[in-house]
Amino acid sequence: MPRHILSLIIVVLSLVISGLFAKPTLFAKPKSIKPPALAVPANTPISIYGAWHCGSDFCTWSTVRNMTDFDTKNRWLVNRGSGQPSVNLVVLSFVEPMRLLNNTTDASTSQGIPIGMNQAVVDYFKSRGVRVMLSIGGITYTDAWNQALATNPTQFGLNAAAAAKRLGVGMEIDYEESTNPNLTGLQAFINAYRSVLPYDASGSNHAARLTIDLAAGDRWLIDLTRKATADWLNTTTPVLDYANAMVPSRQPSSAAAAQADWQEHVDGKPQFAPPILPLAPAKFTGGLYIVTGSRPCPECNSFSTSLTSSTGNYVQSVIPNGAGSTSGMLGYMFWAAECPATRRVCTTPPNTCEGGVGVGAQTYNVPIPMGPLRQS
Known about the structure:
Elements: H1 3-21, E1 48-53, H2 67-78, E2 89-95, H3 97-101, E3 109-110, E4 113-114, H4 119-126, E5 131-137, H5 142-151, H6 153-167, E6 170-174, H7 183-196, E7 210-214, H8 222-232, E8 243-245, H9 255-267, E9 284-289, H10 298-301, H11 307-310, H12 312-317, E10 331-337, H13 354-363
Parallel strand pairs: 1-2, 1-10, 2-5, 5-6, 6-7, 7-8, 8-9, 9-10
Antiparallel strand pairs: 3-4
Helix pairs in contact: 2-4, 6-7
C-alpha cells in the first residue's frame, strides 16, 4: 500500500478513537452562549430617612437651647463627616395636646408649643436641607390626647395647623390609645387641619405634611390602624401623607423579626372583624432603635452589623399584597436622637451616630433635601 494512503488511514483512525473517549460535546456548555439573566426587580429608592428627636430633657423641650451647645450635641445629624446630613427629617418630640388646644403660654410653653421647639432649632435643621416636623402626643400624653379630642377637636386641629404654619414644620399624630380611641374626634382634628393646610402631594409646603404613628405591626392600636388604613392612607384619596410603623417594646432580634412586623401592615388582617385593609408600602416607614440601654445600638454606630443594613433589601423591594403598584416602603425612622429616656445613653459625643445612621444615608443615597413622596 502506498505510504501516503497508509498515513491517511492512521490519521482517520486516530480521530475516530479520540472521539470515542472524549467528553461528549452534547453536555458541554458552549462558550459563546450565555444563559439569560434572571429578572430581578429594581429596588425602590428610600425617600424618608429620619430620626425622632427628644432634645436634652427627655422629650419635653421645656427649656430654650443654647445653640452652640445644641450644635455640639447634634452635629452628627447635619454632618455625617462629609458635610452631608445623616438624615433628611427630624421629628421634634413631644407637644402636649391640651397645651396646644389651649394655646398655653407659660414658663415652658409658647402658644401651645414647648419653648425648646423654637425657630432657632427648626432653622438649624432646615437651613441644612433637613425637613422638620413636630410630634403631638406620645405614650406619656395619651390621656391628654383623649381630653383634647373630647373637649374641642376642631380647635385642636386649627391650633396645630397655625403652629405648623408659624414654624414652617409638619405635624405628626402620635395618639397611642389602644383600647377605645376617639376616632370621631380625631377625624374632626384632621378635617380642621386640612381645612387650613390641604393635602400637598408635592411636599413643597412643609406645614401641609400631616402624618400618623401606628404600631410596629397590626396587633396593637388596632382600631386606629383600621381607620387610618381604610380612610386616611389609601392611595386614591389620601388624607394623611404617610404612617410610621413605630418601634416595638424592644429592638427586633433579627431582620426577619423586624420585617414580619412591617409585613403585617402590607398584608392587613383579613381575619379581624372588621378587617384591617392592606397598607401600600409607599404609605409607611419602619422604625428602629438607635439607643436601647447604656450603649448605642449598631443602628447608631455600626451600619454593617445593623438592622438598617440587613433589612435594606426588604424595605426597598417588599412586594405589596393588593395595596399598591410599587414595591418599596418609604424608608426608616430612628428612635431617638439626643436623650430619649433617663435610662438610655444619649446620642451625644462620644456616642454619636455617623457610623450607623450616617453611613446608611450614604449607602442608600438618601435624597437631601427630601423630594416629593411616591403616592402609590
